[in-house]
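Appendix C reproduces, verbatim, an entry submitted by the partner laboratory led by Prof. M.T., so that reviewers can inspect both the input and the predicted structure.
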Amino acid sequence: MKIIAVIGAGTMGNGIAHTLAQRGFTVKLIDVSEKALDKGMTTIFANLDRMVFKGTITEEDKFKTLNNIITYTDIEDGVVGVDLVIEAASENIDLKLKIFRKLNEICSHNTIFASNTSSISITQIGNVVAHPERVIGLHFMNPVPLMPLVEVIRGKKTSDKVTKIIMTLSEKIGKNPVEVNDAPGFVANRILMPMINEAIETLHNKVAGVYEIDTVMKLGMGHPMGPLQLADFIGLDVCLAILNVMNEGFKNPKYTPCPLLVNMVNNGRLGVKSGEGFYDYSESKKAEKVSKQFI
């Protein structure tokens, strides 16, 4: 396996492309938006610069990584000659199924299909393509270049051979793959999202404030980041989408999203990506933090 296509140049897509390219794979990064591709490549460049500054990689390593990435706005051009396609589009079942139906039409039957989904059924995705045994989940953690875990999700028809190939690939790119079976939320989000939702419920019920809730979980439970801050970094819209999938899949009220989360997403407060969530990430707030360093 030498050539890999990544569909989606957003946070997860550009992180996956960066990680693969840094390990010597040729990566075809695909997005229908030229603007999204430019933004994705700018992010990769900045992250590589940060690694050079820290001494993690050399300047030569940086340019080798960048040269391993080719960008495309046309999916048909982008998937020509690839061994593996990793879909990293938004956590939306209709969009994902549309992409995989398209891939089924234009890729050879030997191409392995992987979805970087946080919660959506791999079995359901496999049902829309010929040879569903080649469809697998590849759930990276954010930020992809730094986080060591990847969940490898087997659909009901995923073959042993494809699972082994993807487990080996994950190890080659420096990740620790954990094989799990297909179920809403898999392992990571099945455990994480109810905790985040409960933290939001605790805030909603005025038991404590944002800072206080996060401090209890950091200092009392040893978490590196409080659940509300973590939700901001994941994206509140993503958290809501995952909870909705689990709520629908399990038919259990414990997965019902807190009304406060729903209202925040509806009002465009999505966390870091929008500049405001449970915390303020606006440019004015950043400037205030910088100015305080010199006072």
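The chain has two domains: 3-181, 190-283. Additional entries are available on request from the coordinating office.
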